[in-house]
Amino acid sequence: MQDISDWLKEKQITEVECLIPDITGNARGKFIPADKFVKEDSRLPESILIQTVTGEYTDAHDSLVSPLDADMFLVPDASTMKSVPWAEDPTAQIIHDCHTRDGSPHPLSTRNILKRVLKLYEDEGWQPVVAPEVEFYLVQQNIDPNCVLQPPKGRSGRPETARQSYSIDALNEFEPFIEEMYDFCEDQGLDVDTLIHESGAAQMEINFLHGDALSLADQVFTFKRTVRETAYRQGIYATFMAKPMEIEPGSAMHIHQSIIDKETGKNIFVNDKGEENDRFRHYIGGLQKFTPAAISFYAPNVNSYRRFAKDMSAPVNLEWGYDNRTAGIRVPDSSAQAKRVENRFPGVDANPYLAFAATLGCGYLGMKHGIEPSTPNPGDAATGDIDIARNLEHALSLLNSCPELEEIFGDVFIKAYSAVKEEEFEAFNRVISSWEREFLLLNV
Length: 444
Description:
Blueprint: H1 2-10, E1 15-21, E2 27-33, H2 34-37, E3 42-45, H3 61-64, E4 71-76, E5 82-83, E6 91-99, H4 110-124, E7 126-139, H5 168-172, H6 175-187, E8 192-197, E9 203-208, E10 211-212, H7 213-233, E11 237-239, E12 253-261, H8 278-298, E13 320-322, E14 329-331, E15 341-343, H9 352-369, H10 392-399, H11 403-409, H12 411-429, H13 434-440
Parallel strand pairs: 1-6, 13-14
Antiparallel strand pairs: 1-2, 3-4, 4-6, 5-6, 7-9, 7-10, 7-11, 7-12, 8-9, 12-15, 14-15
Helix pairs in contact: 4-9, 6-7, 8-9, 8-10, 9-11, 10-12
């Protein structure tokens, strides 16, 4: 706390945003004057950890948290403190860990879930290294939810009407947004690397430098806030919906991952000759076996499953391959020390803490249980059968039938997550869509 206090004084901070990631991966918390922040304990009601995306609570609320809506205790992580570059007054943002009254990590905190998985690796003497790729769309401001989304106008005054994959000129259409976004990222110390224009209209992708899994989850959490805020300032929206537009491809959060031996610093996926070893194969085997049960962490919303279509550049089955972007599990070309696996299943709407925990957890189970993968697919994997869940309800049923993931994540968290997501699925199911009115109203 002394380091935080000294930093707040050095930066002349007057207000602090106390942040915790909720189950969606978005920020909950409160503002506290800086002078009071360093003197008082911070608390929040634990029920905010199990709110649905609509702000509702589940019928299982009282069995998951205290019926008294008791407080949990917040512990600031000094490594996450950053200035808020868009704030008018000098403001800091600090991500907090959630603890129960007895000081234990709160079992419903998604940041604690990732720490729980990382502890499994630590006990083996291993350290995961990840590098996320974050895709998102820029769209015109959309006040009426009944209206379809449209690409925004760029500097030319015209919206995009054609696919512009990797186009530099298409990126330059949004130069004011890009420049301010990079400035904000630099101010916050985010390890953003390359920016490309993806295949969708006004769709972009930011790649992060590889690093520690918890730090990168914190950075993705912060980056999403940053991009939304930058877009607001430019009079447009940025959306991290997995499939925001019918005719455009979805947005993913591909996760590159490798594991190093903490003592030697060497990649555990290769032997002394630089050749792929059993751990490498078993890691892929774990991803193949447990991805069906973990898919709700990669696709956590009802909209997420619209992305999984054969003609939308998203994986639809459990195939893996070398430098094969049609497969859900890809092994990029690399040196022996950089040998890694890319998980292409997660959508950008995923909570980064849970997506990282899920992919690392599946790989860990593969290594511990010696699970052999299938043979690599050298062709178009998308032509195969769809063998992942196509809706949230099915995905949750698979999760609740997997004792291995329940043990890794904790049964309390699995119950809470399932209850929240089931409530969201039922809320969505009550809505009658325009498609139903158009094709069923007078035809059935």
